[in-house]
Fold this sequence. Notes:
The complex is a heterodimer.
Chain A: E1 2-8, H1 13-22, E2 29-35, E3 42-46, E4 49-53, E5 56-65, H2 70-81, E6 89-95
Antiparallel strand pairs in A: 1-5, 1-6, 2-5, 3-4
Helix pairs in contact in A: 1-2
Chain B: H1 2-20, H2 24-74, H3 80-107, H4 139-157, H5 167-190, H6 212-230, H7 246-265, H8 273-301, H9 306-320, H10 329-354, H11 362-380, H12 408-438, H13 445-450, H14 452-457
Amino acid sequence: MQKIEAVIQPSKLDAVKDALVEIGIEGMTILEARGHGRQKGHTEFYRGREYTVDLLPKIKLEMVVPDELVEKAVQAILSSARTGKIGDGKIFVSKIDDAIRIRNDERGPSAL
Amino acid sequence: MRRYIFSLLLGLTFCCPVLVAQTPAAASTADRLTKLEAQVAQAQSSADNAWMLTSAALVLMMTGPGLALFYGGLVRKKNVLATMMQSFAMMAIISVLWALVNYSLAFGPGTSFIGGLHNAFLRGVGLTPDPDYAATIPLQTFMIYQLMFAIITPALVTGAFAERMKFSGMALFLTLWSIVVYSPMAHMVWGKGGLLNASLGGRFPTLDFAGGTVVHITSGVSALVCALYLGKRVGYPKEAMPPHSVVLSFIGACLLWVGWFGFNAGSALGSSPLATSAFVNTHFGAAAAALSWALAEWIRNGKPSALGAISGSVAGLVAITPAAGFVQPFSAIVIGLIAGAFCYFMVIKVKSWFGYDDSLDAFGVHGAGGTIGAILTGIFASSVINPIFKDPKTGAALPSGAIEGNWHQVGNQLMGVAIAWAISIVGTLILLKLVDMTVGLRVPSDDEVEGLDLTQHGEEGYDFAS
């Protein structure tokens, strides 16, 4: 089992979710995040004071998938989230030690 | 024969009333005319009272929720409730205080500077009119209308010390302030025998239709003193403290604009053509100032902001307040255009030159706007709109403002402005010192960082997770 974390542009959420559901991944956690990589922020003006906003709105998806689906999931995210511009985001993959279903104590890949 | 004469006399006795009843026709016309005059006066009174009660409600709405939202949106999320609560506290505290003593100090008979305690506990404030103030409405209507002004004035001051003031210190300070600064100023400009009262023969008649000096200069200048005395917020100016909800401020500002029709047009104290003038001027002043602030911002920053546009409209409303029932509509547009640009300059440039933390620009908008408005009133006042000065012998209207040749009035306006500044500075300094030594003014810096909603009120403004 591996965990896929993807930080993407908020406007791409629907496309990415649809692409993942299409390859059989339906369980995921979606977080509203703020952050930046090399993307520059913007300035806002309130009553004459300038505010530089570095933290930009992002969406982070987290999902734990069986090993055989990892590469397919990564490809699905890449193709649906890419615009080609700076700020598209990043995907991280890490190993997961265990997964447990709370409802019935099920463990392992069948709990996914 | 005797019986015949008797019945004849009896018959005449019954006829006489009928004969005599022919002449009361003249008396009944007079009676009817008297009744008719009373009914006309009653109708006039009904019309005036309806508008005045409506105006009172509109002015209260300006504080709650108008100002509460306007200020609430400008502060950080952790302080939103505390900020709104300051305005609401005024609605509660000042109302009771008004009934107890402040109405009497402001509008009761007394000296040129302050009323006495004749009307304390609202004694003598009944449903019959007081012709000195408003001849066609119950005195209680006048009293309740004026109360709404007394509520919003200290509420405006809270803008200066937002995000760092103790609730207890604020409550004590503004209670005392309303007695020491507001009531005397209101008395001088609007009270019987007031030094600056233009309608009732004051020594330095200051034209202030709805409170440019009484409300805006006093609150704005006192706000500046508070900001200087209390010092800057923790982290100001390096730390970013943008408004947490310009949406709330927007709603608040629009409520202020609409409510201001009660503030200015209601100051005509009746539903007269003068109320129309004030209503019209108020609207044009707001619109013109919104444009000039937005334009100034567009030129300086490349984009007109929503916060700028609404701030501009408030600046215009402040500036037109003393002028509303004295000027022609086009003068109102000019006053608005000047006020928008001038207040923008005060907030953007002057504030950063001196470095004071007037958190919500109470001084930049109300203090500065009120001052410029009061002076421009002396320039643009027109006896065609409001013949406030009359020749004592002939009763003919005398020139009001500079545009009619009466440059002397600008001098009177400056006197009113100077007195407003003086009483605000002196009164506020003394009271700040007093409260500082007893209850305390600022919250500890840890509490300030954590936020006033939690530390002062044990609440959170928003809990979307629940």
